[in-house]
Fold:
Amino acid sequence: MTGRTNQVTRYVLDNGLTILLKEVHTAPVASWWMLYRVGSRNERTGQTGISHWVEHMLFKGTPRFPAGTLDEAIERVGGVWNAQTSFDYTAYFETLPAQHIGLALEIEADRMQNALFDPAEVEAERTVIISERQGSENSPTFWLHEETRAAAFRVHPYHHPIIGDMPDLHTITRDELYAHYQTYYAPNNAVAVAVGAFDSAELLKQIEALYGAIPRRPDPPPVTRTEPPQQGERTVRVERPGNASYIYLAYRAPEAAHPDWIRLAVVDSILAGASAPGGDSIGNRTSRLYRALVETELAAGVGGGLYPSVDPYLFSIMVTVRDGRTPEEVQGALDKEIARVSAGEVSQAELDKAKKQARALFAYGTESVTGQAFWLAFAENFAGYTWYEDYLNRLDAVTLDEVQAVAARYLRRSQRTVGWFIPVDEGDLPGSAS
Structure:
């Protein structure tokens, strides 16, 4: 295995830990990711936001590495580390000089088992997370996204915000946090990925020595609440203080493993410009909606997004209504352009351009070892790592007929939720002093 470059090797330890290794020797760095198959999708009402809170607690120390010591250790070797929680996963990573990758392995093996959840730290972090939510609430689009997604999902736990509902953030207990950690932070519920300048055979020995003895735990409970078919267009109107009106469309979309996902991603690129998880983009000035809405001065901005998810999720479009225009006239122009695409009015030249932009964005997001390691872990969680490896081939294989078919299939009014944000004066809100 020594010397294999740009090929992924996959292993599963006896305790169920999935390991993906990819040697990249272009620079003397390496990235180590530990992804757990738990996110807001795995939460119940009364414990929303608990996955994100547990993520915070894993930076609060273990008996071996007390709080604060790892920041110094990572900085001392010239590395970076962080974490993220999403709908389908919680992930931790370290990117550092390749000769120090052993430190990253030790950190994640330790906190997979030994995070402290000190009661005082739990309460301190409660304040931090509540403040984080309050900060998000200052954004009109936060409220619009939350309300629209909640209307789109009435049964499936994608209904829940990742940050959590405020009442739950006030009442979740230390024991509930620790139980969540014990349930989901297990080798058989994790994907470990290394990308960088190392010898795979030697690194695998280190991984087996550190992780092989960690006991397997009972498989976490499955998510069984499937969203029922939507029976017609749903509408949401959010009225809060703000400086602009917004329109947010959320169409039913397939899960990432579905063959239609990549085809709908091309439709996203045609309509609003190529997008990627995390909001990365390469500009959308040549997209259909930019030309139809921004260049005509109906909108100040437009964007779209199609998230690769474990279960069926949403294809979204967000429009900022230009000052002096109304949501009604912008919605009319928006619907007209979407109807053109869903009716099959897409040319081969548009398809070729959309593919080119999507390829460029994919290359931009995966040029670093950190980006490659993330995508391998991310894809392994919802469809297998080859989803990432085969992405460009599947993108290139999308035909004009397939684009026209998926646009007609998914861009239907009966299968969308329409959200409007309407700015109002503070005094017009219920409960405000007159």
